[in-house]
Design a protein that fits this description.
Distance between the termini: 96 Å
Radius of gyration: 25 Å
Helix content: 25-40%
Largest sheet: 2 strands, antiparallel
Strand content: 5-15%
Structural class: mainly alpha
Number of strands: 8
Oligomer: single chain
Order of helices and strands: HHEEHHHHHHEEHHHHEEEEHH
Number of domains: 1
Strand order of the largest sheet: 1-2
Length: 468
Amino acid sequence: MKHTKRVWVLLGISALAGVGLWLAATSAQPEKPPTSYTPVIEDKLENVIARMTAEKPAIAKRQQDLLAERYDLSNTPAKGVTMSGATKKAIQEGVRVKLPAGVTWEALAKMSPEEIRTKGTWPKGFLPLPHPNHPEGGMVFPKFHIDEINKQEARDLTRFDLDHDFPDHFLPVFPPPMFLTTRLDLGDVSKGQLVTIANYYELFNGILNPKQLEGLRLLVTPFPQQQFNPTADRRTTKASRGVTCFDCHVNGHANGATHLVGDIRPQQFRHRLDTPSLRGVNVQRLFGSQRALKTIEDFTEFEQRAAYFDGDHLTAAKKGVNVLERGSQVHFMAEFEELLDFPPAPKLDVFGKLDPKKASPAELRGEKLFLGKGRCAECHPAPFYTDNMMHNLQTERFFAPQMVNGRMAAVDGPIKTFALRGVKDSPPYMHDGRLLTLEDTVEFFNLVLELQLTKEEKADLVAFMRAL
């Protein structure tokens, strides 16, 4: 009996020693190397919901603290300047990017890029902007859009882990008006409504041809996406039917929805994406976050296969990717997208230049600066104010690489020249939405291009862009 007890004691000691060696070996193992593929879920959905819901307030506070540190977020509308459409939402005015203590815009403009970098005086609001939760990423929608989709379709775009970060007054008017190149006589063909699967047929039957109508149907039909899908790997409490193209490109325009680009790895180097407007895609020739897609048909075909699933086609297959047929569905969708027009600009002539009889002195001075000293027209020529090219602004000249809320602010790289027609309707600005107002964009390019603009010249440039 004693011998048996002694054996069990020895076996217990040996087992404990083995566990200790295993724990030591495990703790000594290096971190997993970065991977190009989406991480595999290793926990139950209910546990993920509980954990991320608990973490949500701290993540939101971290992002709001960053925005408050970078920007003046007050609601200060410009007098007499509104976005297009019947809602007449005022645009925000003034420079909102905060300067470092003791620095003025005039003094900063006199410094060389090397001096700004060395002294650390590059405004934080000009650094790349992180996603509301950059390590997690994914599509995030403003609450006003979530509420309207819930009302019309009973489809919930609420994420249990994350909310949109920008105040509503910095986002485009909702819902935005929709203008068609084929029926300019109708004005806003959406009639002030958010176009969805619930009302598209009533609104557009008799205006579009059957192919275009079918293309629009597909654009407002929900399909599975990385965070919104029926699998256990999602960020919605209940299984989701997914998202639509028009959840981000609302009425063919934008609503401030954000995401991370799918074509950069590792995660901390992925750019936040400010969803661009689809207005005027008929004059554009580069698409996708890195502009690898050369036609709107290419973009339409691959968006749901790639961008919907963070660029991971294997995850897409698991979650229910919607593979569009090129010869019919892609063509139908693209044919409708090509009809989306810029908003009216009554002060512009047929060449996209200001009519001297209609423009104010400030707008005319701004146009002269745009074409000359400001060097804006080198990338944004009339009539649509885009050269359909990629340009690298080399902003890394001005700041040292730094990690900000999970985003490695290092380089922007080549970015697309966005069309400036109707630009006042499309805040925030830059590819990641880091610039909240047109005044911010002027200050940004005054430094990046080393223009040495005066205070009066900056104001005139803003006046001109408001008229586009």
